[in-house]
Amino acid sequence: MAQPKRRWSKARTGLRRSTWKIEAANVVECSHCHEAVEPHRICKNCGYYDGKEVIAKKEKAAK
User: Fold this and answer.
1) What are the φ and ψ backbone dihedral angles of 12, each rounded to 5 degrees?
2) Angle 44-53-34 (CA atoms, 0-180°, nearest 5)?
3) Cβ distance 40 to 47 under 8 Å?
4) How far apart are CA 42 and CA 51, in angstroms?
5) Is the separation of the CB atoms in 49 and 42 below 8 Å?
6) Tens digit of each residue's pLDDT (9 = 90 or more) over 7-63
7) Could you give phi then psi for residue 45, rounded to 5 degrees?
8) Cβ-based neighbour number of residue 48 at 10 Å
9) Which residues pair with 29 in a beta bridge?
10) How many CA atoms lie within 13 A of 5 on its CB side?
11) In sequence order, what are the residues at sequence separation of 6 or more whose Cβ sits closer than 8 angstroms to the Cβ of residue 36?
């Protein structure tokens, strides 16, 4: 198999790796409970999606 004639410089390696950065997760506000939620996902706090209840959440019983 062919081998490169010379090493890549550190600058060239850095340019290639410059797109490897981590992006922050996109977060929107739930329209029902105003909790932070990923877009196009059911809210884990209240169970609503697109203004409609998708998952019925049980109320915690007070002890």
Assistant:
1) -65, -40
2) 50
3) no
4) 10
5) yes
6) 999 999 999 999 888 888 899 999 999 999 999 999 999 999 998 999 887 776 666
7) -80, -45
8) 19
9) 36
10) 0
11) 27, 28, 29, 30
Give CA–CA dist 40/16, Å, rounded: 33
Q: What is the pTM of this model?
A: 0.55
Whether 48 contacts 57, CB under 8 Å: no
As given in the structure block, the two tokens for residue 53 are 């209840």
C-alpha to C-alpha distance for 46 and 63, rounded to whole angstroms: 22
CA-to-CA dists, residue 60 to 5, 37, 38, 42, 49, angstroms: 68, 22, 25, 20, 21
Nearest to 52 by CA among 63, 61, 60, 43: 43
Rounded to the nearest 5°, which phi and psi values hold at 32? -95, -50
